[in-house]
Structures are given as structure tokens and as C-alpha cells.
Write a structure and sequence with these properties.
heterotrimer; A alpha/beta (281); B mainly alpha (203); C mainly alpha (258); A: 281 residues; alpha/beta; Rossmann fold; six-stranded mixed sheet; four-stranded antiparallel sheet; B: 203 residues; mainly alpha; Arp2/3 complex 21 kDa subunit ARPC3; 8 helices; globular
Amino acid sequence: MDIVTFKDFSWRYAGYRGWTLSNINLSIKKGEFIGIIGKIGSGRTTFCSSMLGLIPHFYPGLMEGEIIVDGVNVEKTSISELSTRVGLAFQSPANQLTGAGTTIEEELAFGLQNLGIPYKEMHKKVRDMLKLIGLEHFGKRSPFELSGGQQQKVAIASVLIMNPKILVLDEPTSQLDPLGTEQVFDMVKKLSKKGITIIMSTNNINYLSKFADRIVLFDNKIVKVDTPDKILTDVELLREHALTHSDITEVSIRLKKMGLYNKELLVDFDDLKKVIEGLIK
Amino acid sequence: MAKKKSSFWDKLKNEFTTTALVLIPIGIAINQVGRLISTALSLPIFLDTIGTVFMAMLSGPWVAAIGGFLTNVVTAIAYGRPTSVFFGTVQLAIGLIAGFAVYKTWLKKGINVLWTGIVIALMAALVSSFISTIVAGGVSGSGVDLVVGIFLAAGQKYWTSMIGARLITESIDKILAVFIPWISVKRLPEKYARMFKYTSKVR
Amino acid sequence: MANAGLTSYIEKNSYFHKVNPLTKLLILICVIILSFTLKNFIYILALLVIIIPIAIKSKVLSMTFSPIFKLYFMFILLFFIQGFFHPYATEKLIDLPFGFTLWKDGLLYAAYIAARIFVMMVFGYWFVLTTHPGDLVSSLSRIGLPHALGYIILTTLQIIPRFRTQMQTIIDAQRSRGLETQGNLIQRLKSFVPLLGPLFMGSVQQAVEKSMALEARAFSAKGEKTSYRQATIKTKDKVIMVITVLFSISWEVLSWTL
């Protein structure tokens, strides 16, 4: 069943000449993990913002086509209504903190307060969420005291607590150190396993190759949609879009050059492991 | 009549977009930081209204007036200083005047930055003299009290000293308080500028 | 400990920490009204007799009276300005050389103002020492404070300390690169601008991103909102409120009839 459908969607920001996105047609199935890649300015952020309705409701501009998310038309639904269907997290962990929460608990509860969730239910949800993100002993701390990775987890959790079926992540790790990046990817993997549809924009191809079901390559339009092993090993295509292939692909290229391997390029760690184990034998 | 009133409220409500609401705490923080910098550079001015003027240039007179007033409410809550709420009226007036100048697109012309600064200084001197007389017997707890004292000791009348002393310190301060946000808003990237209703009236 | 951001709030387990913020606010408002309307400064200063046991019971006695250290210079000026230059002075106390006159009504007026400011400050300070801003805002929201206003107050208290540290870092960094913090006035003014450029630019970006984050959490949702913090009004609150109002009225009446 499709949970997100883009039909001939195009968007142009007010005051700009060109279309940031044009003719987007894409269907995403329930529970899928979609990786979004592309160079800076390729419209990935615009794409991510569109599912929550920030486009067209928050940003001024011109929209064509339609977007259906979890059965509702984005153009005809308010952002606050959409926020119970789609969770959106983005780059800067600090800018996503509302600032109104003096503790992590209050930060998590912010969306629930706005939705008018009763006191008891709200407290239970907050407790459960703290457990899920592994911060149950940090509830009374200030969110500003956390590390970047932990802040990003809190940011993701604070939209997740509103129980969306779709989680959209726009470069959630680009401002984090390697440890923070791993923490966030671990959390996302966990959520994906729970059946939440994940749409994640990131150029961290090493991680994407492990988790994503499909990859979409953007360049103000959709250039290509395919499985990770097809797109992420296309070294030429990636280079055209200012992206670097993964270390695993690099190893398989070297092996090929050395004449030790002659099949398709690899992107999956386990596949590479098998090849190398074969070579050792 | 009733219809007219509701349309005014609707208009007012439309001014307070989410972006404008989020801007208010930031504007207040800038007011506070302005003072920090002027102390660090030992400048003889306050610069604690740059945030209010900045709000006026991005989100108009009403947001700036409320934001300006709240600057003092927050100080009151933070440091337990109820008197500072009364002086919030000065910030409120500054927000309104700066916002009005923006609304009328006067600030598109560079020279009007100077005039707006002077009008704000005049207004600020009048309002703060009045408030400090009513609330605190003419003192305000800042360096300006000393200047007032010098004026008085030199034989000037009470109100002349109050307003005159303030005009001297305020005028440089307020011209800068308009100029600094003005140049920043002019240089704002289009991408961000278009998210605020009033930037097009300044740039 | 719960971080309350930019406030003087001190977390303690005292009787008055647990009193509803609205009750304490009512006390504060009554004190402010009294300090503007009582007949003379003796009646105003007498209010300090009440705050002492309250501050002891709140475990913040010495802190409560700390505003005096910030105020004494202001008071000296106040007595100077009003003592010598009170605009409507009529009763001479003493004639001094160089044509200066010390006025009795001027000094009395200064005492009245000083008492007013001091009493307001002391009660105000006691209020913030014992009241978590989160509790204050959530109780105010329940009696009709607009949601957005509560958001603004809380957020501001949170972000000001962060802005300060950020700015201090920038100042220190620029200083090590030769920023003019001494030099003449023009030089110092010039070095001011590069400090503020990034501040304004960063602020706008932050405002845009933060408002998206708020939208993503149903900030603009219509309908009733709830609160994570909940301070209930108990019987003891009602008792304190009634006592406060009754006392204020009788003290006011007493000051004008005696």
C-alpha cells in the first residue's frame, strides 16, 4: 500500500526564477526506508519539507501537481494536522529545540501539549519515549546540556511522540560527529524495524547502503530511483552529482583492478566479506 | 463598527505568524547581548534596543512593540525586578515608532535612518523621564542619573535636566540602534528575507 | 536539578516553593499596589516585617535581601536629586552655600520612593527565588495567558544565557585576533559592527528553522492546549490568598485613617 504519493509535483520559491523541483512522480510504500541523495541545492530539503506541508503552507511560492500523504492531500491539510501523520527532523539539533522546555521531558511533551493530550496520557507517552531513545535517566536535565547526537535523538523523538506513520529526516547527521551519527542511525534503524516509513536525506552513503530499501537521486528533479546496490555502485553517476561512493565499493573497485574479482561492484559489507573470504580460501 | 473592529484584530493576529513569534525571544536576546557588547567595548551607550528595532524591520510595529515590552517583563521575571516592567513602555514606544517608519517604507532611504533614530531618541527621552519620575522619583539606575545630577547641580530646572540629560545619551545610542539592524537587514540573503513580511519595506 | 535558564530561581524543598505561583503572584501584586498607594514610607517599609518570616520559611532569607547591594548607589542619587531639586518643594530644611537648599519634603519624597523600590525589589526577588518559571507560565496559561505569550517568556529565559555565552566566545575570539576593545571611541565603534553582523544573520536563520520545528510539533494547532507541568490550587493557597487580600485592604485603610 502506498503511504506517500507525489503526482507531477513541482515547486518554485517566490522571488526565484527556476523550479527547485519539477515533475516529481514517486510512490512510497508503507514501512519502506527511502534514501534521498543529491548535491547541495538539488532540492532535497524542499522535497523533505513538502510532506509536512511546509511547502506550500509555510514557504511562499508556486506549487503544481499534488502530494498525498497517509490518505490526505497536503495542499488542503494544515501543517498541524499533518504533524500527526508525518514527523520531520532536520539538520541543526539546537535549532530544533523549542527552547520552551526547561527539561528534556518538557521538550518531548511540547507537541503533545499543542495537540491537547490529557495530563496522564502525556506523562506516560513521555516516559515511554525516553525509554525508547535510551535517555530515561536524563528526563529532568536541560536539553541544552546534551551532546549533539543526543539532542538530535531528542529532536527526532519529539516529533515521533506525536505518533506519525512517516518519519522524514533531512540531513540529520550532517552537523554531528561520528559517534553522534552512529547514535542517530542506530535509532533510525530501530524505528524502521518497528514499521515506521522512513524517508532520509543524507549523503552518508556508507550508512544508507546498509539500511535503505530504495535510493532516490535528486537534481531539481528525480534523476533515478533504484535499489542501493544499483545506484550506490554507479561511480560515474555519483561523481556527476558531486557524491562519493562508499568505502566498500572502493574496495571492490581495487579488487577488480587487481584482477581478483570480476562481477558487479559491491556496496554491502556482507557481500564484500563473502568475496574476501572466498579469496582467502 | 463591529465588523471594522474584528478586521483590525484579524490583521493584528496575522502579524503574529509563527516566524514572528519565534523572532521575539531572539530579538529580546539581542537586546541583552547589545548591552553585553557595549560593556565589553566600554562604549558609552546602551545598545539595548537594537533587538527591538530589528524586530520592527522584520515583523513590523506590533511585533516589535510587544517584543520590546516583553524584554522588560523577562528581565523582571529573571532578576525579580518589578520596576523594570514599567520601563517596558519605553521599549514599546520604540518598537512602535521604528515599526511605523518601516511600515511607511521611510527606511528605504539611508538618510531617514538618522531621522528615525532622532525621533526615537526624543520619544525615549520623554517617556523614560516621565516613567522614572512617576515610579522612581527621577532615577533609573543607570549612568544617566549622574548626567541628570550634573544638569540639576548646574542650575537647570527639573524637567529640563531630566529630558535634556537623556537626549544627550539617547541620541547617539538610538541612531546606532537603528543603523546597525538596518545595515544587517539590507545584507540579509533573499532566502531568509522573504520569510519576514516587512523586510521588503526596508530593502 | 531542573535547569530554569535565566532566572534566579533556586530549587529548594520549602513550604513556599510548593505554594501555587498564582498565590505568590497575588502577594507580589498586592505589595506593588500597596507600595504605590500607602500614605507614607513607614507603612511601606513595615511590609518588610512580613517578608522576613516568609523568606525564612522559604529558606532564601539572605538572598531575598540581596537587592540592597545593587540599589544603594541609585538611592544616593535619588536623595541627592529629590533632596536638592524636588520640583514642587516648599518646606526648607537647611540652606547651604552656593545657593543650594536641602528641602524637607524632597527628602521625604525620596524616602517614600526608596521604600517603594526596595520593598518591590525584595518581594519580587523572593518571588523569583521560589517560583520556577515553567510553573509560573503553566499556571498563568490556565487562567488565560495566551499560549504564544507563555512560549515567548519561557523560550527567552532559556536562550538568553546561550546568546550570552555565544557572544562572549565571539568577543574573546575577536579579541585574540586584535579586536579593538581599548583604542579611541571611533575604533571601538568600528569593531562593534563585525561582531554584530554574524549575530543578526545567525538570528534570522535560527528564527526560520525554529519556526519550522515548532510547526512540525503542531504549534499552530487550533483547539485546547494542555500542560506538562501542573500546579494545582490547594486549600492552603486559598487561605493565603484571602489573608493577603484582607491584610492589604486593612493596611491601606489604616495608613490613611490613622
